[in-house]
Amino acid sequence: MAVLTKYILMYPLDEEHSLAINSLTSAMDIIDQETRSKIEDMQSGIKNIESNEDEELYQQLMSRGYLFENAQMEKDTINRYKLVHQELAKRKIITNFTICPTMGCNLRCTYCFESDDQHINYNLMTDTQLDTIFKYISETLENSKEERIRLKGDTPATINVFGGEPLLKTNYPVISRILKFAEANGILVKIITNATTIQPYLGLFERYVKLLHLQITVDGNKEIHDVRRIRADGSGSFDQICRNINRVLDLGIKVALRINVDKSNIKSLRELEAVIKSNQWDQNPLFYPYASPVLDFCGVGEDILTEHELLDTLLSERLYGNEEGFIKGIVSPSIGFLSFFFDSKNQMKPWKLDYCEATSGSNFGFSPDGNITTCLTYAGKGKHTIGTFDENGVRLNEEDTAKWFDRSVFRLEKCQDCKYAFLCGGGCAVAAIERNQDMDDVVCSDIASTIEKYVFHIKRTILNQ
Fold first, then answer.
1. Rounded to whole angstroms, how far apart are CA atoms 47 and 61?
2. Which segments constitute the Radical SAM core domain (predicted)?
3. 261, 271, 374, 430: least surrounded by Cβ within 10 Å?
């Protein structure tokens, strides 16, 4: 007997229409209320799923993958997806590499996931360590050159420079070497900096404008920012950061302005918009402001916003998602995926089988303690590593690497019967580790509420397509 897939999501668009999403096949269909009622009756067992009862609907559901001739056919489809995923994982090409010159930092941000001890008692990356990293990157890119060009065209690889604060004065020789290596090998460099110590680097940066991007965080106007992103002596950082953003933009360097958002600053984002406009950053094509939720992997923070709360507020306040909104993007696992999924320009809708780049196998992070991590939350902490490096080379632990890079919805028991699995990716591995002491003991993402809010806010667009 035919079976209805469990991967059906339905959301109201207006009084007469709903959006049906098949998360197994990524099909999306606008249906009338009569059809929705019939599907719901099938789900509840009130209505038999037989072709002779409603031939037209039966054939439509079958052709769109909502209906299978029997339960085994659905299982076979999922198994085919699993095999495809495994094959793609074998051919995974690493094009993102993160280097942490130090874990030391001159700020003591209130929400930082790194400890004060890391920021105070720190080492610097040595020349020998850099030699090993550069050799590994060169060999990795050379060995994957043909496949990389085939899959990604001329998209360059990227070195992300992270910390701690990577632009402390003591790191100048390291940053100089990274930029020189990147230029020689056609690699982009993205530096994640608090921008308070940037001035000594301006002359160096001027020589590498074409390959350099900076990410700089400002969390609000001066009053808000200076109680969140404070120096070790307790003073604020707002004025100096704004001056340095202007200096960097004047050099012609791209700046991504990150706004870390939680309940304590979300209502004051209009004041930040005023700061952006007063500096005329919004008129500069090199400037890109985006929001990201403050993360709390232990789930106890009172000010933490869920993804759907963040999305709902930014859209409701018209801060994002329209021409007048000054926030141009949201970097967050569920929202970021849904933005791509619902983009009408993307005809091939993806599955999300793993949660983020930490579990997708697309990023390696090198820290001064000689450890390699895939999630930057653990950089420099000496735990949940996937390998080590020193003057003798890079050594990846096969078992530890597999724990991270093989983590997908196919491995996670809690995901097996979840209708959101292929839109979620299995939730954050770090949250699972920190709350449940097991990365496979899933902490569900906010995908269910987030997709509901997303559809609510774009329903007119969907109906007009």
1. 14
2. 100-260
3. 271
Strand 329-330 to strand 287-293: parallel, antiparallel, or no bridges (unpaired)?
parallel
**Mean pLDDT, all residues of the chain:** 91
Give the confidence band of 44 by pLDDT, cuts at 50, 70, 90. confident
What is the fold of 93-398? TIM Barrel (3.20.20)
Q: Domain ranges in the chain?
A: 3-87, 93-398
CB 422 within 8 A of CB 445: no
HSE-up (13 A, CA, CB side) for residue 348:
0
DSSP state of 158: E
Closest CA to 451 of 39, 7, 81: 7
The pLDDT value recorded for residue 439 is: 97
Q: What are 299's two structure tokens? A: 């789930």
Reported as a single tens digit per residue, the pLDDT across 189-198 is 999 999 999 9
Query: From its phi and psi, is residue 234 left (phi > 0), alpha (psi between -120 and 50) or beta?
Result: left
Contacts 24+ apart (CB under 8 A), 432-435: 433/297, 433/384, 434/297, 434/298, 435/297, 435/298, 435/299
Note the pLDDT of residue 114: 64
How far is the C-alpha of 240 from the C-alpha of 228, rounded, in Å?
Answer: 15
| Beta strands per DSSP E along 46-187 | 67-68, 96-99, 158-161
Joined tokens for residue 331: 């970097």
* 3 state SS of 388: strand
